[in-house]
Design goal:
Blueprint: E1 4-10, E2 15-20, H1 23-36, H2 41-48, H3 52-60, H4 67-76, E3 79-84
Helix pairs in contact: 1-3, 2-3, 2-4
Length: 88
């Protein structure tokens, strides 16, 4: 069984978990979080320590993104990547 990816958005009162089946859905969530925080792609890239091209590709759902950089972008947005459904 494949594990699903979940991005957790932490709010002061509650925690919201959203599962994604595709990189496109993850990219859309990153874009929505960035826009909700009023950031331009260039600004997010600078805060996360990645290139603007990487943020553009992540938001577009590029399937071959570098995981470490993606985690840096998520952290810059206050998001967290977790794996769910792992069997022991």
């Amino acid at each position: 069984m494949l594990a699903s990816l979940a991005v957790s958005v932490i709010f002061p009162i509650r925690m919201i978990f959203k599962s994604f089946a595709t990189t496109y859905e993850l990219g859309a969530a990153v874009r929505a979080a960035r826009k909700a925080q009023g950031l331009r792609q260039e600004e997010l890239a600078g805060v996360a320590g990645v290139g603007t091209r990487f943020v553009i590709e992540l938001e577009a759902g590029k399937p071959t993104i570098q995981l470490g950089k993606a985690i840096a972008v998520l952290a810059a947005l206050g998001l967290m990547l977790s794996l769910d459904g792992l069997e022991r």
